[in-house]
Specification:
4-stranded mixed sheet; 7-stranded mixed sheet; 2 domains; Aspartate Aminotransferase, domain 1; binds pyridoxal-5'-phosphate; alpha/beta; 400 residues
Length: 400
């Protein structure tokens, strides 16, 4: 790090432990540090850069829009937000879209919409059943909706109105349903929990419970949406249609853009209920438009699914060769169980050799390459990953 950057460090709140490595440029699947070393990036800003680093489609959209109209304010219509809302409703089962800037903000909107619907149609029901180990964001309400261990006391008192069931256990959900219940909220694949997919039977069971008890089914697709799991939206692979869905991360391809989508029957916000200074600004919506048009172009997601199969196959081979654990996930949201708490050691060894990885849990890795990564890059990453796991194990052995 340069003396300049070193000098500036104490000015930042220390909210994360960061490596010394300092990135100055990105290109597709690759990041470059100050020394000009390149790293294959399988984190991509936590599944945010679905088209890789600095893609021409997004750079051109942003540059063109920046020269045309950045933000007239949320009290006026603008063309990119209208076009993006039309695309999202055309390609999904939803009728209405509200744009925001982060996944947490979109989920806050989903919670508000469900509470408003409950007040109007269900005797003031407001409670949302969520799941242990779920992740929905870092605002106070989305922290309460999340099931991250320790989060109920971190900034106590927590926002009331959230119950917690066990993921993939339908009986545990049913047991929590009462007169105050308004909906069920979940990630179709629990991302931060270590890429834990909901089973199709579980999702079908939730839909049936919601239909029987007149509850809203809310899918948080902030991580799974926008092509990450190989479909445009993960719910499409399950055949289960939620009433409300949220998007974030990949939707802006790297710029802050999220969305709350609802079916017309539950879309009950009235003017004044919901909003925000940056909501639906044309600059980020132009980026979102470039993302959705790229993802829905002929052959794009088919290629993503193919890369996903290649990566999953490679992980299975690695697991068999090195005696590791399960490979989970679909598309380019995959996890590898390491069989021991080697996650951070593998992440460090991989970084030293030029591969960026994420370990959401101490015993597993999460792989989130750019959706348009090349087959060759999957091969390069797998071979770097193999070396990193072997190095981390050798390092760990003397201490065991
Ligand atoms: C990342 C994430 C969020 C939070 O998104 P932010 O943009 O960080 O607020 C919410 N839900 C899921 C499933 C996520 O993966």
């Amino acid at each position: 790090m340069s003396p300049d950057a070193e000098h500036c460090l104490p000015s930042l709140m220390p909210i994360a432990r960061r490596p010394e490595t300092f990135f100055v440029r990105g290109e597709g699947a690759w990041l470059f540090d100050r020394e000009g070393r390149r790293y294959l990036d399988w984190v991509q800003g936590w599944a945010v850069n679905c088209l890789g680093h600095a893609p021409a489609a997004i750079a051109d959209a942003l540059a063109g829009q920046a020269r045309t109209l950045i933000n007239p304010g949320p009290a006026f219509y603008n063309l990119p937000s209208l076009q993006l809302a039309e695309r999202l409703t055309r390609h999904s089962v939803f009728d209405h879209v509200f744009f925001a800037s982060s996944g947490a903000e979109a989920n806050e909107g989903a919670i508000k919409l469900a509470r408003k619907w409950g007040r109007r149609h269900k005797d003031g029901a407001y409670e949302i059943i969520g799941f242990h180990n779920a992740f929905h964001g870092r605002t106070l309400a989305t922290m309460a909706a999340s099931g991250k261990p320790g989060w109920d006391t971190l900034f106590a008192p927590p926002v009331p109105g959230f119950a917690k069931a066990t993921y993939n256990d339908l009986a545990s959900v049913e047991a929590l349903i009462g007169p105050a219940t308004v909906g069920i909220m979940l990630e179709p694949v629990q991302g931060e929990a270590g890429v834990i997919p909901a089973t199709p039977e579980f999702l079908r069971g939730l839909r049936a419970l919601c239909d029987r008890h007149d509850l809203l089914l809310i899918f948080d697709e902030v991580q799974t949406g926008c092509g990450r799991t190989g479909e445009l939206f993960a719910y499409q692979a399950s055949g289960v249609e939620p009433d409300i869905m949220t998007l974030g991360k990949g939707l802006g391809g790297g710029v802050p853009l999220s969305a709350l989508l609802a079916r017309e029957a539950v879309s009950c916000f009235e003017p004044g209920d919901q909003g925000g200074t940056y909501c639906g600004n044309p600059l980020v919506c132009a980026a979102g438009l470039a993302v959705i048009d790229t993802l829905t172009a002929d052959g794009f997601l088919a290629a993503t699914r193919e890369r996903g199969r290649e990566l999953a196959d490679g992980l299975h081979r690695l697991s068999a060769e090195l005696g590791l654990g399960e490979v989970r996930g679909s598309g380019l949201l995959l996890a590898l169980e390491l069989g021991a708490d080697l996650g951070s050691a593998v992440v460090e060894a991989a970084r030293d050799s030029g591969l960026l990885l994420n370990s959401p849990r101490p015993h597993c890795l999460r792989l989130m390459p750019a959706l348009n990564t090349a087959a060759e890059e999957i091969g390069i990453g797998l071979s770097l990953l193999r070396g990193a796991i072997i190095a981390a194990r050798q390092h760990a052995e003397p201490r065991q």
